[in-house]
Amino acid sequence: MFQSIAKSELSTSTAPTASFFIPPGIDGSQGTNRANGNRPLIAANNDFEAIKAWLTRYADTSTTFANYRKEVERLLLWSTLQLRKPLSSLTHEDLLAYQYFLADPQPAERWVMQGGRRFARSHIEWRPFAGPLSPLSQRQAMIILNTMFSWLVNAGYLAGNPLSLSRRRGLKTPPRITRYLEKDLWNEVKQTIEAMPKETKREREHYFRNRWLFTLLYLCGLRISEVVDNTMGDFFCRPDRDGEKRWWLEVVGKGDKTRLIPATTELMDELSRYRSDRGLPPFPIYAEATPLLLPIGGKSRPMTRVAVHSIVKRVFHSTATRLEAYGPSHKGTAARVKAASAHWMRHTAGSHMANSALDLCYVRDTLGHESIATTSRYLHSSDDDRHRETETRHRDLVEIV
Fold this sequence. Notes:
DNA-binding; Integrase-like_cat_sf; Tyrosine_recombinase_XerCD; three-stranded antiparallel β-sheet; disordered C terminus; mainly alpha; hpI Integrase, Chain A
């Protein structure tokens, strides 16, 4: 949640909204789009209080809350710092300008974290953006903001939704997932981890943690939020219909939905290896509170999503550096790995499962998709067959020439 606002004047520096005071002139108490005269359903006197009331509805869903806070915080900072006007005075034209701003947040030193790094919200180098947003991320941001504006209208705080005038265009679903690592690139990532130093206790701790993290991401298709929000006590063992003991991982994921993931022998071997290095028994016990991934140094507390993202990016960056060292012919693949993020691992898991002839219904259930249509986007083998057939049979024009 937004924390209490420090009583200092609004400056030109960009920081989380909890760290500065918005002067009354632009705090929204006199916003031109306020629903004055109507009976409000929320006790909000300014934009900040109204936003808090909206966000409170998502406080029990950490991932959704964090995503929604991020988008509304960006808009609030842009409105007050860039336009010097309250959020409740924004017009349709202002929000069109904001969409262009999302594609290229300028000036970059004010809005974008430098050096390709992500900083915690409490860090002095924190900025609202890690870089320009892709068209898909821009659209998602505006969908979230439209949800907020609509709710504030229904709550009697705003007179109208400035985004309701926007042209509604359906987003075409991409025919296939493309942001994933092919088998050869995934093998390069594994080689990077395996080449990590293991001489000291701390080096071994980093090595085993990386092995375990990437195993979780690949074999289970977990999101980063699921890695940090679930515990080792979510593993459990039960006999199947033939009496053979099978391990499962029960995950609470996106939308607070629970799903069961088959914990394969390979996964449990990696878990045992990781736990043994941390001085824990090989297998977890029921309801054990140990986080799925642990900080270096023996502390038993959950890691932040930013920290886990940073681990993944470092491994990808090291892999890209190794590929670049192979020579100019590997420049393209190196750039692809360098651009990869933690969510690419989920796409990699889904793509490799789907293309290894695993039943798509099983892939759907493991990844937690609502529809088999979503899962089918990971199936690239049919595209490969189509390309092969086209290459072989669609040759008439070439032969005539």
